[in-house]
Design brief:
The chain is built from eleven helices and twelve strands. It has about 325 residues and is of the alpha/beta class. The chain has one domain: Rossmann fold, CATH 3.40.50. The strands form two sheets. The chain has an eight-stranded mixed β-sheet, sandwiched between helices. Helix 3 packs across helix 4 and helix 3 runs parallel beside helix 5. The longest helix is centred in the middle third of the chain and has 18 residues. It is globular and about 65 Å long. The protein starts with 5 loop residues before the first strand and ends with a helix.
Length: about 325
């Protein structure tokens, strides 16, 4: 298999807020790569640090330790003005709440073209308008929506405006931060299909952030599971669903609803209890236990989890 190009690399990244006694570690030694053209998902419950990682890649949150690379170049910490502009253009973010992330007082035309205006990525007014029109069409909105305000749209339409705003910069990498969690169930599939379609057409790479495993199965190539700032498991999508090893991943998976009522009624819901880990004797490590399947734990736990997995499959 040919060596895949690493677009984003996180090396031992730590992100903290506050200092002294009030110091809070939001992300603890996260290391993973995102390959060009893939959808890499980060899954975990609220407050686990997934959005913080997404914001650190787009340079919204500073990194306290470790480094983040984009195409082999460091983009965390102090970087040159040119590199900063490059990151802003090439790494875009789609936010969770489409209402909060759109400027209420601005018309859609300005919201979508704000990046173009800041970077002056157009020859004349006519080209700017044309780019806005094309971006709106691409996400399934009518060009005449450009003259309206965000409050005149439904949640799904607002999210499409947010996607158009990210796409108009012609990014290579997009952080989609729970882009469907604030939407109705009927609209969610439409937005996911749209993201998949745009990925193919524009050769995009996604970091998809979610708290729901059932959503990411449909869209991801690989999934990383994060718990309290620590990535506990990472594997290809089907591998993770067929062989979840870490107890936290299993608990998340047991919460996914099953469409069959009889099976749903009889399924066993697992609750993750962090006290099952005994790290007093042996310190946990990040290890590849199967090809491409990484887990955080001790050697004793790896042996136990792999044994249980063999019994269950």
């Amino acid at each position: 298999m040919a060596e895949r190009e690493k677009l984003i690399e996180l090396k031992d990244v730590q992100i903290t807020f506050g200092s002294g006694r009030k110091k809070f570690v939001a992300v603890d030694h996260a290391s993973f790569d995102i390959y060009k053209g893939e959808t890499f998902s980060l899954v975990g419950e609220s407050g686990s640090g997934k959005t913080t990682i997404g914001r650190a890649i787009t340079r919204i949150n500073p990194v306290s330790n470790g480094e983040i690379l984009f195409k082999g170049q460091r983009i965390s910490g102090k970087i040159s003005k040119e590199m900063d502009r490059e990151v802003i253009r090439k790494c875009q973010m789609i936010f969770q709440d489409p209402m909060a992330s759109l400027n209420e007082r601005a018309k859609v035309d300005y919201i979508v073209s704000e990046g173009l205006l800041n970077f002056h990525l157009y020859k004349d007014e006519e080209e700017r308008k044309q780019k806005v029109e094309d971006a709106l069409r691409e996400v399934g909105l009518l060009p005449e929506f450009a003259s309206r305000f965000p409050h005149e749209f439904s949640g799904g339409q607002r999210q499409r405006i947010g996607i158009a705003r990210a796409l108009i910069m012609e990014p290579e990498f997009v952080v989609a931060d729970e882009p469907i969690s604030a939407l109705d169930v009927s609209i969610r599939a439409q937005v996911l299909n749209l993201l998949n379609k745009l990925k193919k057409e524009r050769d995009l790479t996604y970091l998809f952030i979610a708290h729901d495993l059932s959503v990411v199965r449909f869209i991801s190539d690989r999934i990383g599971v994060i718990h309290l700032g620590r990535i506990v498991e990472l594997a290809d999508t089907e591998e993770l669903f067929s062989h979840p090893l870490h107890p936290y991943t299993r608990a998340l998976q047991s919460a996914v609803p099953i469409p069959d009522p009889a099976k749903e009624k009889n399924k066993k819901l697992l609750v993750y209890d962090p006290s099952v880990h005994d790290y007093s004797v042996e310190q946990p490590i990040w290890k590849e236990v199967r090809p491409g399947h990484f887990v955080w734990g001790t050697e004793k736990e790896f042996a136990q989890w792999l044994e249980e997995d063999e019994k269950n499959n």
